[in-house]
Every structure is written in C-alpha cells, then in structure tokens.
Amino acid sequence: MTASRSLAIRTPAELIAVVPFVMGYHPNNSVALVGLAGSRMEFAACHDLPPPEVSDADAELAADAVADVVTRQQPTRVVIVGYGTARRALPALLRSAEAVRRRGVEVFDVMRVENGRWWSYACPDRECCPPEGTPCLPGDSVIAAEATFHGAVALPSRKDLVAQVAAVDGAERAEMVRATERARRRFTDLLAEDLTAERCGRLIRQQGKLAIRAAEKCYRSGRSLEPDEIAWLGVLLVDRSVEDLALDRAATAHEWQIRLWTDVLRRVEPAYVAPAGCLLAFTAWQAGFGALARVAVDRAIAEEPQHQMAELLHNVLGFGLAPHMLRRPGRAR
C-alpha cells in the first residue's frame, strides 16, 4: 500500500488491524516495520524472526538490513510490530528499534501481537496498555473495511500469497501444454515468413503489440484470455522488445492489469514464466502491493535466475525503492 492508498491511523489498535492489508497477508513469527508520515501509514517492511540458532551478530545484521530499507523511504517515524511469543519476538523487536534509531529515525512505538492481543513496550500507562495485553480489533472493523475499500486484501499467511502466483495444474495445465505447442508452431511459421533478422524483429514486435493490446482490452472489460491467447502472449514476451512494450504500458497500474499478469504467470509453461513474473511484479510494485511483487519476482528468478529484468526488480524491491523514486526500471542492454 503506497501513499496513494495511505490510511489515517487513529489508534495503535487500528495500526495493528491495517498491517496485514499493507503486507497482503497476516504476519506470523515476524517483525513488521511500519513507516508513518504524520498520522498516515505509508508502507510496511516485514522480515521473519531469526531462528533460535542464529547468532546475535547475524541477527543484528539482518535488523540493520531491514532498517536500511525502511529509512530509504524517509518516514517521519516508525512503529515496529512483532508477531509471536515474547521470548522469540521481543529480542528481534528491540534489535530492530535500535537499528532504526541509529539511522536517525524516530521509533514511535514498539508493539507485539499474539493470539488476538497486543502489547506496547513504549507506553508506561498500565490502564492504557495493561500487562495482560489489549484485544485486537475484529476482522470487520471500520479501518479494515476502509483498507478493503481501497483494494487491499489480507490473506491468512504468506504461503497463501505465494499460492496466488503458483502454476495452475490438472486439466488447466494439460490444456496449456497443448496451447503452448500450438503457439510455438505459430511462432515458427511467423519467422518463416521472412528469415532476415530485421524483418523477423518487426514481425515479432507487431504481433506482440497486437497481443498485448488485445489482452489489455479483454481484462479491462472484466473477461479473461483463452488458453491459446495466453500461450501466444507468453511466447511473444520472450522477445525483449515485446516485454519492454508491455512494461511501458504497465507503468500506470490498475487492478485489471494485476489480474491479467497474474493469469499469464500462472498459466504459461515454465520457459515463459520469467517475463510474466516481471510484469506482475512491476505492476504490483507500481500499485503499492510490495509483497505480491516480491513473490512474483521470486517465481521469475526461480525459473530463470539470469533474467535481467527479474534481477533488476529483485534489487529494486530489496533496496526498498518506492515507485516515485524509479517510475520505470530501465532494462540492461
């Protein structure tokens, strides 16, 4: 959730209720660092609690890395929320708070959430923040409804978020295998029209532009592409110029674009996953859904580790760059 979808936070309980919507899933055994600009939540970065066997030095390095990501966003202050037992979460909370303070950013509050209750470690008022904790807001609270209205979702876990970009299987996969073979033959026939490199390049770009525009029109109207259309688009996107065209057209993200590239990513065969993963990652990042962008680019890299755009987006997300800092990640040539 970026500034364009930022929400006014009035109480600590409201902040805790909104964090899952900013992340896209309900954190568990993790630490979320929430950036505020005045009373408005601007972003959140989340990392897993270090396992018990990790040394203090390594845990501090991890906290420093996340603090670097947070401070690049230039928040006026930060709230740190841990999810888990006091024994596991509290040391990580304190390390994160100290890392943020060392970078000159105010830590407004340090909180922990466990079993539907939350605790503040910055508030000394026992009536406001009792030792037994304070109940979290219900799932249908006003602030949760406001986040949903803005288009945010909060899945049960990060595992569920990963499942949203996983490949389809069963009958759908079998149909996509057949459709991909037809698309490959169609691509071969296209190249056979003229074997000169310049002419082939123009033909591919022309077909790519037509396929991208047809896909956009389809999803803008609320429909979905057929298997043959998905497969053909996937094959064409392997060409760098076609992928660049699609990236340029994704610079202003819309919900239907996220749906489009999610469908393409899930349905194309493995050889065509990387461009689709990059397009979903770029679109989700532009729209403020950083967690979705991360799992999409992770899938792209898993299938094609040397894909240049996937590597670039991986670095953009890793450094915590906001879309306004880099409107269009240029491609290495």
How would you portray this structure in words?
The protein is α+β, with helices and mostly antiparallel strands and 333 residues long. The protein has two domains: 3-156, Cytidine Deaminase, domain 2 (3-Layer(aba) Sandwich); 164-325, no CATH class. Helices cover 54% and strands 12% of the residues. It comes from Actinoplanes cyaneus.
Spans of at least 5 consecutive residues whose pLDDT stays below 50 are: 328-333
Radius of gyration (CA) equals 22 Å
What would you call the structural class? alpha+beta
Structure annotation, total helices: 13
**Largest sheet, if any?**
7 strands, mixed
Q: What fraction, in percent, of the residue positions are helical?
A: 40-55%
Tally of domains:
2
- Average the pLDDT over all residues and give the rounded result: 89
Strand percent estimate: 5-15%
Number of strands: 7
- In the sheet with the most strands, the strands line up as 1-3-2-4-5-6-7
Gross morphology is: elongated
The N- to C-terminal Cα distance equals 31 Å
The oligomeric status of these chains comes to single chain
Give the topology string: H per helix, E per strand. Answer: EHEEHEHEEEHHHHHHHHHH
Protein name: DUF4192 domain-containing protein
Pfam families: DUF4192
InterPro entries: DUF4192
Organism: Actinoplanes cyaneus
